């Protein structure tokens, strides 16, 4: 039996696509093996990322590692970095096949074609490419997963592409224009996963808020999809990937708040708390729009978890503009923030902007926000100590001398539940087999590292 390994880099959409490629290989008769120093494979796929320069570097590094570990293997470079740097990759002797976005369904066919070339059954083609003009492709690449590596949570890709063209972002150029999946295909996939025991589903996409906008013959929207998923028997939780604030209307907030299985956790991408910086970034909202969305969610949900992304050190960002972001972060009072230092992306407008910020200043600004948002996260979690809630168990972990099962609440707080108590309750000796249970607990305090809450069975 031939062996294949897949190493995934980047976002949850990439992870979903890696799962789908893996399952296509299994159906074709491959044994999936880990991407590791002591494991040999006949085919190695690196599903690359290009969201930052660091991601590009990591992608190249993993491709070269793949060939070093498996010199006789077919090494396949797939995904976003490939899509944006095909000419450069064609010159790389470590890479045998280039597989762009919207062509991942062709993986097994492309491998067979390459093997035919290598065996002299077809004309040779160095670094064979299977790419399309992603920027002019309007077809959603139908992919499906029947199982996922996580025991409890399944990420479901429902949308691809982006039409926003933020000045710092390369993704629209490597993912193409918005393309949405058919609602019935999403429902069918989730129904199949429910039958295999999965309870939580995360709807994700490159620009999730645009779901349905490209389907001229359909009235599908993200909200209509959420409602239909909520009606599938066995779906215990629905969670959303990253959103922009303009999707949060009163109808959206009111409708989702009435769904018992909808998680009150919203990752609303901010990027900057200064209107002038948002304008330079070509973000399509203002801080007032953003705050209106937050207030709408807090009107209909009881203490929803609001999380976000922020970029510091964008070109020309003044100290005054940065301070505006600091004050806005205080005003919103987030649960968690992911802070990123701006990095140039070749081919974007921001790359050639004047007023690039020194790295040391980016680091200083990042530290200011990290310290602020760390305190906000601690305050949010501590407010729940003493309360009861449900936790979806995921995996065992040992903290000190005590074994716990980790899990998450509906509003995405990480919780440690003593494994000994669970074993007694469920008469289950193997903690791994507790994954997937939803248990009712009392939150009793913070973990030693302050990043989770500890609990006891209620």
Strand order across the largest sheet? 2-1-3-4-5-6
- Characterize the largest beta sheet: strand count, sense, and whether it forms a barrel: 6 strands, parallel
CATH 2nd-level architecture of the largest domain? Alpha-Beta Horseshoe
CATH class of the largest domain: Alpha Beta
Portion in helices: 25-40%
Tell me the count of domains: 3
Quickly count the helices.
14
At the third CATH level, what is the topology name of the largest domain?
Answer: pyruvate-formate lyase- activating enzyme
Task: Detail the poorly predicted runs.
Answer: none
CATH superfamily of the largest domain: tm_1862 like domain
Walk me through what this model shows.
- It is a single chain.
- This protein is an alpha/beta fold and 458 residues long.
- Helices cover 34% and strands 22% of the residues.
- The protein has a six-stranded parallel sheet, with helices on both faces.
- Helix 2 links the parallel strand 3 (43-48) and strand 4.
- Helix 9 packs parallel to helix 11 (287-300) and helix 12 (319-332) runs parallel beside helix 13.
- The model has no long low-confidence stretch (mean pLDDT 92).
Write the layout of secondary structure elements.
Blueprint: E1 3-8, H1 12-27, E2 31-32, E3 43-48, H2 53-69, E4 74-79, H3 80-84, H4 86-90, E5 97-99, H5 107-118, E6 128-130, E7 153-160, H6 171-175, E8 179-180, H7 183-194, E9 200-205, H8 222-230, E10 237-240, H9 250-257, E11 265-267, H10 275-281, H11 287-300, E12 305-312, H12 319-332, E13 336-341, H13 359-382, E14 388-399, E15 402-408, E16 414-418, H14 419-426, E17 438-446, E18 453-457
Parallel strand pairs: 1-2, 1-3, 3-4, 4-5, 5-6, 7-9, 9-10, 11-12, 12-13, 16-18
Antiparallel strand pairs: 7-8, 14-15, 14-17, 15-16, 17-18
Helix pairs in contact: 9-11, 12-13
């Amino acid at each position: 039996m031939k062996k294949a390994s897949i190493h995934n880099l980047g976002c949850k959409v990439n992870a979903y696509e890696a799962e789908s490629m893996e399952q296509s290989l299994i159906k074709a008769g491959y044994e999936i093996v880990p991407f590791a120093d002591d494991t040999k494979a006949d085919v190695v796929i690196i599903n690359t990322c290009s969201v930052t320069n660091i991601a590009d570097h990591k992608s190249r590094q993993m491709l070269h590692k793949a060939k070093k570990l498996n010199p006789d293997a077919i090494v396949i470079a797939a995904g976003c970095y490939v899509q944006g740097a095909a000419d450069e990759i064609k010159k790389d002797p470590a890479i045998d096949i280039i597989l762009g976005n919207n062509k991942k369904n062709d993986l097994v066919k492309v491998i067979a074609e390459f093997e035919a070339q290598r065996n002299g059954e077809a004309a040779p083609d160095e670094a064979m490419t299977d790419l399309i003009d992603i920027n002019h492709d309007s077809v959603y690449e139908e992919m499906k997963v029947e199982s996922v590596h996580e025991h409890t949570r399944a990420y479901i890709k429902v949308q691809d592409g982006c039409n926003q063209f933020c000045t710092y972002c390369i993704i629209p150029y490597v993912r193409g224009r918005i393309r949405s999946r058919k609602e019935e295909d999403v429902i069918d996939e989730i129904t199949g996963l429910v039958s295999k025991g999965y309870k939580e589903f995360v709807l994700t996409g490159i620009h999730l808020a645009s779901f349905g906008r490209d389907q001229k013959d359909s009235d599908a929207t993200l909200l209509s999809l959420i409602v239909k998923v909520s009606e599938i028997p066995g779906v215990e939780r629905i969670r959303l990937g990253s959103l922009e604030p303009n999707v949060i209307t009163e109808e959206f907030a009111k409708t989702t708040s009435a769904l018992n299985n909808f998680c009150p956790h919203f990752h609303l991408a901010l990027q900057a708390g200064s209107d002038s910086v948002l304008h330079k970034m070509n973000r399509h909202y203002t801080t007032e729009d953003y705050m209106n969305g937050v207030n709408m969610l807090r009107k209909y949900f009881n203490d929803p978890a609001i999380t976000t992304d922020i970029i510091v050190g964008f070109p020309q960002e003044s100290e005054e503009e940065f301070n505006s972001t600091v004050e806005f972060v205080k005003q919103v009072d987030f649960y968690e923030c992911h802070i990123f230092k701006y990095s140039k992306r070749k081919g974007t407008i921001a790359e050639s902007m004047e007023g690039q910020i020194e790295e040391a200043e980016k680091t200083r600004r990042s530290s200011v926000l990290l310290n602020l948002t760390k305190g906000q996260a601690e305050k949010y979690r501590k407010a729940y100590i003493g309360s009861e809630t449900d936790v979806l168990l995921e995996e065992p972990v040992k903290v000190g001398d005590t074994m716990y099962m980790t899990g998450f609440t509906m509003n995405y707080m990480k919780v440690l539940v003593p494994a000994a108590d669970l074993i007694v309750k469920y008469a289950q000796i193997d903690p791994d087999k507790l994954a997937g249970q939803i248990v009712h607990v009392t939150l009793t305090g913070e973990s030693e590292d302050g990043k989770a809450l500890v609990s006891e069975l209620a």
